[in-house]
Specification:
OB fold (Dihydrolipoamide Acetyltransferase, E2P), DNA polymerase, domain 1, about 200 residues, five-stranded mixed β-barrel
Length: about 200
């Protein structure tokens, strides 16, 4: 529904960001670590959003980047973590620390996050190990972040998707470029990932 909102920041309070755009002031729930990364009050910002909608309530969640929103959506896949819990977890640990803790299976680091108990931390490791690896790290020097994200959306591990794309690119015939190149890379990456 909404990908992002752009407007002037009117308030920054704990895990809430208020954004004034087009005559409307939006009340957006944002991880505390993200709130600090937005510009000061009165300056313009872009907020990547996700709308939570139930019969009895609607709430808009916001993030400083598309990658942070992807992390939030991955956290929602963990049994027992809802939108407010995901925001609280993200507000208690930086992105790179979270990725490292999950990759290393560092239960003690995850348990140190406020509000995160041992059982939920274990579920996070089981569900998310290998899935939160930073897209920027995976695709440094390459323009394939969107392809990695598309493959991750199909359920593939981001690191494995990036490696499959790199193998596919190495095997491409010379002279292929543009949209045709991306289509071939995507197709070949799926073949590599299916083996």
């Amino acid at each position: 529904m909404f990908n992002s909102l752009r407007g002037k920041i009117s308030e920054k309070l704990g895990d809430t960001l208020r954004l004034f755009t087009g005559g409307v002031e939006w009340d957006i729930t944002v991880p505390a670590t993200d709130v600090a990364k937005f510009p000061p009050r009165g300056e313009e910002a872009r907020v990547y959003t996700w709308l939570y909608h139930r019969e009895d309530q609607m709430r808009l969640f916001g993030f400083v980047s598309g990658e942070r929103r992807s992390t939030f959506l991955e956290l929602l896949k963990v049994e027992g973590i809802g939108p407010r819990g995901a925001v609280k977890i993200m507000g208690g640990i930086e992105q790179d620390e979270l990725e490292k803790a999950l990759e290393a299976g560092d239960l003690s680091r995850l348990e140190a996050v406020p509000g995160l108990g041992k059982k939920t931390a274990q579920k996070m490791i089981l569900t998310l190990k290998g899935k939160l690896t930073s897209l920027s790290a995976l695709s440094s020097g390459g323009p394939y972040a969107e392809l990695v994200e598309a493959l991750a959306g199909m359920g593939y591990d981001k690191r494995a998707a990036a490696e499959a794309l790199a193998r596919a690119e190495a095997a491409l015939p010379p002279g292929v470029s543009g949209a045709e190149k991306e289509k071939l890379l995507f197709k070949q990456a799926i073949i590599h990932l299916s083996v």
